[in-house]
Design goal:
The complex is a heterodimer of chains A (about 140) and B (about 150). Chain A contains three helices and eight strands, in the order ααββββαββββ. Chain A has about 140 residues and is an alpha+beta fold. The N terminus of chain B is likely disordered. The chains are: A alpha+beta (about 140), B alpha+beta (about 150). The interface between A and B is large, with 36 and 35 residues.
């Protein structure tokens, strides 16, 4: 997969090559250069059966995968970026329903990129969680 | 779904080993990930997750996905808070540093320590390793809100 490939091809390749993304059941769609990641609700994502609520780790992982997917869209190499660190803020309970996320690349560096992600359910203006993270970019070529 | 009696114990402040085991292995997500209960002691807990092909992040390396590590660390933080006799309501924030990739096809172990409780907040540190706790794969720092504060 090179930079001659389209963003949609690079996104599809990233999603298809990562077994854990299939485990989550995560998808993503591109509208122009804007990517929206979708985590359809599934019973195995539940962390608290009383509420019920999605596992906090699932929300964090979903947003981290969203950041990696967004980075895959802008990079041409076959290898994905690697997570250096993430800070996850939990803002509202993640309910037993579909979750969406969008990433903003705050800095696309040659070696290290900084990405913010917000996840929401019923209303984009009421995010359930957010992350900030640093990612090691794959070597070029 | 019928809640077993140990689930009640798991919500009321005392945490015996059976309730801890239940907390680690019997939520849908931890069951799906294959979490195994290892131990609890005063304000500390340990969980293991065996390597599995469908949990891999990069098929070229066979290393377990960082997302699995995130859920493992979040859960072991909750377990160590329960081992400190408090009830976590939810995670406020969780900071994770990934020190190095896990070894290919390695099982992961996470240790959590709830080092400070206030009436409303639990502060927790945790690490994940693949055999040697002195050479961690990832470290975590978290704050959790507590249900109703401490009794």
């Amino acid at each position: 997969m090179s930079l001659e490939s389209t963003p949609a091809e690079r996104l599809a390749a990233f999603l298809a090559r990562t077994p854990y993304i299939a485990f989550l059941g995560m998808r993503a769609e591109l509208a122009g250069d804007e990517m929206t990641a979708i985590l359809p609700f599934a019973p195995h994502l539940i962390g608290n059966t009383l509420l019920p609520a999605l596992h906090g780790g699932v929300l964090g992982a979903f947003m981290e995968m969203t950041a990696l997917a967004q980075l895959a869209v802008i990079t041409g190499g076959p290898r994905p970026a690697k997570t250096i660190d993430v800070t996850i803020d939990y803002l509202r309970p993640g309910r037993a329903m579909d979750t969406y996320a969008r990433a903003q690349i705050k800095k696309a560096g040659r070696r290290i990129s900084s990405v913010h992600v917000e996840a929401w359910q019923e209303a984009r203006a009421k995010p359930v969680a957010a992350i900030r993270g640093h990612f090691q970019m794959p070597a070029e070529g | 779904m019928v809640k077993p009696p140990n689930f009640i114990a798991a919500m009321t402040g005392t945490l015996d080993e059976e309730a801890a085991r239940h907390m680690v292995t019997r939520t849908p997500q931890t069951e799906a990930l294959g979490f195994q209960f290892v131990s609890i002691s005063d304000a500390r807990g340990t969980i293991q997750v065996p390597w599995r092909a469908d949990l891999v992040g990069d098929p070229e390396t066979g290393v377990i996905a960082s997302g699995v590590v995130t859920t493992l660390l979040d859960h072991v933080c909750g377990l160590s808070i329960r081992a400190a006799a408090a009830v976590p309501q939810g995670t406020l924030d969780l900071r994770i540093d990934y020190m190095r990739p896990a070894r290919p096809q390695a099982d992961l172990v996470a240790d959590g320590h709830c080092y400070k409780l206030t009436r409303t907040i639990a502060f927790v540190r945790a690490l994940a390793h693949d055999g040697d706790p002195d050479d961690p794969v990832a470290t975590a720092q978290a704050a959790f809100a507590l249900v109703g504060g401490l009794s």
